[in-house]
Specification:
It is rod-shaped and about 105 Å long. The longest helix is centred in the middle third of the chain and has 68 residues. Helices cover 94% and strands 0% of the residues. By secondary structure, the chain is mainly α.
Length: 86
């Protein structure tokens, strides 16, 4: 009779081990899915930030070109002084 109990115990232990391994694998798969989703979100945010930086750089370059065309206050005073003297 003890042999029957030992066999049952082994079968039950094996079933428990399989359930435990399955549960562990399931938990690990969930963690992997969450990590992949988090990575996708970060990649998207990085892409958007890079686009924003490119737009800001373009705007800054355009502003710089406009400011180079605009005369300074001193240049305006000198030009207006020359016109009055003429």
């Amino acid at each position: 009779m003890p042999d029957i109990y030992i066999r049952r115990a082994r079968v039950e232990t094996k079933a428990l081990d399989e359930k435990f391994v399955y549960t562990e694998l399931s938990a690990l798969k969930d963690e992997i899915v969450q990590a992949e989703q988090f990575a996708q979100i970060k990649d998207e945010r990085i892409r958007r930030l890079e686009e924003s930086i490119q737009h800001l750089q373009t705007d800054l370059n355009a502003l710089s070109r406009v400011l180079k065309l605009a005369p300074t206050a001193r240049e305006i005073e000198e030009a207006s002084g020359k016109k009055k003297a003429s």
